[in-house]
Every structure is written in C-alpha cells, then in structure tokens.
Amino acid sequence: MTRDDITGAGGAGAQEAVFARRERLRANLAALRERVAAACAAAGRSPEDVHLIAVTKTFPASDVRALAGLGVTDVGENRDQEAAAKAAACADLPLRWHFVGQLQTNKARSVARYADLVHSVDRERLVRALGARARAEGRRVGCLVQVNLDLDSAAGVLGPRGGADPADVLAVADAVAEEEGLLLEGVMAVAPREGDPDAAFARLYAVAERVRDRYAQARTISAGMSGDLEAAVRQGATHLRVGTALLDDRNPNVG
Ligand SMILES: *Cc1c(COP(=O)(O)O)cnc(C)c1O
User: Where in the numbering of this chain does the Alanine racemase N-terminal domain appear (predicted)?
Assistant: First the structure.
C-alpha cells in the first residue's frame, strides 16, 4: 500500500493516518531545524542566512500540503512530470517551487510554467530553451548554475549527477544573465559520492565567488543534503536541499 492509498481512503483510519503523518513531519522538521541551528552555531553563521528546501520527490502532494501547514515555504522536486502534477495540486499554497534534478531541454517548457528557481542549469542550450519558454509564459524564472564537483570528470567524462565543468560556469552564467526571462541567482552542486564534502563544497564556494564578482545579485549557494548539510553550512551554503531527514526514506526503487 502506498501513502496515496492511505490518505485517499475514507473513514476514521485514514484520518488517523493523515494525523500521524503530520505529527511525524512536525517532529522531523523540528529535529532538522535544531540540526541546522547547531551547524550554524558551530560555523559562526546566522540561521537566518541558511534556507531550507524540502525535497519532496516520490512523496505525495498531501505531504507538501502538511509541510506548508508546518511553515515550510520552499519545496524541491527532481522530475518534471511529478513536479508539474504536485505544483498543480498545491497551486493554492504560497510555496516557492525548486527544480533540482537534471533537466532535458525538451522539459524546459513545462518547468518554466511552475518552477521559481531551477538549480540544475548547466549548459547554454538549456539556458536558451528555458529563457524562451519563460518569456513565452510571461514569467521570470530564477536560475542557479549547477557546478560539477567530481574531480574525475575533469578528464572530460561528465559525472552522473550533471553540472557544468567549473571552467565553464562563468560562460553559462553569462548566458543566463543575457536571457530576459531568466534571473541569475547563484550556483548549486551535489557533493561527489566519494571523498570529503568539505573540500568539494569549498571548491563550490570559490566558483560562487567568481560568479558573484561578476553578478552581484547571484548570492545563492545551494549545497548540502541530509547526509552532508553540516559541511555545506561550514562552507557557506545559503540553501540546503533536504529530503530524507525531513520525509523519511524514499522507496529505494525510485528517486
Ligand atoms: C534527492 C535530492 C536531494 C535530497 O537528498 P536527501 O539525501 O534525501 O536529503 C537534494 N538534492 C538533489 C539534487 C536531489 O536529487
């Protein structure tokens, strides 16, 4: 049985399941906020400078609604089809929608309709597609240039997680800045699976500074997930993308 089956069924049992899920999310959110506050304190940073994005991929719209009721303002998704449906189901909520997954150019039209900030902009062709679609929608879509922090892929083999080579980031940023429908807000990265996340996020910070030197408004550094958010906070992250620490384990077959 899936969570949708539980919350979609009628009766008192379903009511209880909805209540239990909300209490679970409330407890997870409180624990996560404490964890972020402790990380900020240890790093000598103000918690107000570190924003939380709830990555709700694979979880139902009812969880997004529950999180919004608990004060979450930002949600992230990594697949267009799922994100579009959830954003439509939650259109009445005052949420900022983040697209954090690898993005194919042919999905730009859909994403430009609902995304407020696209974290995974990593090539000029995608920039042009997103820009054209955002203009057609009469929207201004925020963009982060995704940076590939995988040292192995310096040899030319792109890592499985996407992202521009650090040497190409400024060119992608320039392309975003030239697009009327887009707004350059900063950079994003996923730490490599292997190795020290502090070292990886320090490399991201150096790239972020170069982008910010050219575009003063591009101050966002999206880094850090459930497993490495302390390292991200130490290395200057302004936005954390947290899934499992907030929503519990995803179905291992998806997401
Ligand atoms: C799923 C995902 C996250 C959240 O990961 P957790 O380990 O569940 O916190 C963050 N960023 C991206 C790009 C993701 O795809």
Answer: 28-246
